[in-house]
Amino acid sequence: MDRDGDGEEAFEDGSRYEGQYRAGMKHGRGTFTWADGCRYEGDFLDDDILGFGSYFWNDGREYAGQWAHNRMSGQGAFTWTDGRKYVGEYSNDVKHGQGVFTWTDGCEYDGEWKDGKQHGLGVWQFANGDLRRGEWKDGARVWWTSQVYREGNNADLNDDARKGKEENNVSTNYASGEGGRSTPSFSCSACFCRCARRGRAGQ
């Protein structure tokens, strides 16, 4: 008989589910914990992760936001254990759309993303609060489109002090990657115990 309502399941690989069911499928709110300690808490729809939920890595990273068909998609916030943070849009498990990436030293990129990398127009904020507009392509800055300025001050500031310092070389994967570690996605079937973590760099 198909299960409805609240329930629990334990799987041979050591993973476990606690939450709501409908017609035998995970549907509603639930928590799925993998044998390695990674955990998802949030919405399920017909055995898929879909809606809003939080994923907790066993190394301390966290994502809280929207999901579609087992992948990070929509608005979300991703935090790293070293204090870095991204708040913005995701598509198919990678940063895509508008988003803000903040570094631990106070630098910040607020702008467009494509396939996990800065791509399009954005504003770079230096650690001292100075701002500068620019254009990025595939994670690398193409050029600046303004001089240095301050919020609420239309006059450009002298940017001699910024030359050679710029944005900590954002052409690297420092902003576009996930610290060199993989990000899980999910492969769900009728037998949810076959959910697997598959490495996906460049989130």
Defining traits:
single chain; Histone H3 K4-specific methyltransferase SET7/9 N-terminal domain; 2 domains; elongated; mainly beta; about 200 residues; disordered C terminus
What does this structure look like?
This protein is mainly beta and 203 residues long. It folds into two domains: 1-73 and 184-203, Histone H3 K4-specific methyltransferase SET7/9 N-terminal domain (Single Sheet), CATH 2.20.110.10; 81-177, Histone H3 K4-specific methyltransferase SET7/9 N-terminal domain (Single Sheet). The protein is 0% helix and 48% strand. It has strands at 5-10, 16-22, 25-33, 39-45, 48-56, 62-68, 71-79, 85-91, 94-102, 108-114, 117-125, 131-137, 140-144. A 13-stranded antiparallel sheet has the order 1-2-3-4-5-6-7-8-9-10-11-12-13, with no helix packed on it. It starts with a strand and ends in a 59-residue tail after the last strand. Mean pLDDT is 81; it is low at 157-174 and 176-203.
Write a brief caption for the model:
With 203 residues, the chain is an all-beta fold. The protein is 0% helix and 48% strand.
Kindly identify the CATH topology of the largest domain.
Answer: Histone H3 K4-specific methyltransferase SET7/9 N-terminal domain
Estimate the strand proportion: over 45%
SS element count, helices? 0
Mean pLDDT: 81
Main beta sheet: strand number and arrangement?
A: 13 strands, antiparallel
What characteristic shape results from the CA principal axes?
elongated
Uncertain spans: 157-174, 176-203
Structural domains: how many = 2
Residues in helices, as a percent range = under 10%
How are the strands of the biggest sheet laid out side by side? Answer: 1-2-3-4-5-6-7-8-9-10-11-12-13
What structural category arises from helix and sheet content? mainly beta
Radius of gyration: 20 Å
Number of strands: 13
Order of helices and strands: EEEEEEEEEEEEE
Quaternary state reads single chain
CATH top-level class of the largest domain: Mainly Beta
CATH architecture heading of the largest domain: Single Sheet
* First-last Cα distance: 41 Å
